[in-house]
Write a structure and sequence with these properties.
Elements (H helix, E strand, L loop, with lengths): L5 E3 L2 E3 L8 H10 L5 E4 L9 H13 L3 E4 L9 H37 L4
Parallel strand pairs: 2-3, 3-4
Antiparallel strand pairs: 1-2
């Protein structure tokens, strides 16, 4: 990963599509200093699960690293803004699950009607 990290002064950028593992993040984190800026293309660069992303994000915030997410227009990296954003993500995930569940129920009911049309 070290070769992929682009550093210019206090600005560090991960290449597009780069997802860093826990050990790679640890190495990067140790190289960052308070006041540095880290530019990532997506939150998925920090991990593939909610817990991995939030864990890494909190570590960056505790070290006072300014994070820019290029595919998300939020420029602020305050803890409150991040938690508000994660609330939004959780709400969207809930709504999508609810929609999928309703779709699954609709499919089941459609199949039930095909199997027993007179009921």
């Amino acid at each position: 990963m070290d070769a992929a990290v682009i550093r210019a002064g206090n600005d560090v950028r991960l290449p597009e599509g780069c997802q860093i593992s826990t050990s790679e993040f640890r190495r990067l984190y140790n190289r960052l200093e308070a006041g540095d800026s880290l530019s990532i293309t997506s939150l998925s660069s920090l991990g593939s699960t909610f817990s991995k992303i939030t864990d890494k994000w909190r570590k960056l915030m505790q070290k006072e690293i300014h994070v820019q997410i290029t595919d998300f227009p939020m420029n602020s990296t305050s803890e409150a803004d991040f938690l508000e954003f994660m609330d939004y993500i959780c709400e969207m995930e809930y709504l999508l699950k609810k929609q999928r569940t309703q779709t699954d129920v609709d499919i089941y009911l459609d199949r039930l009607e095909v199997v027993s049309p007179g009921l």
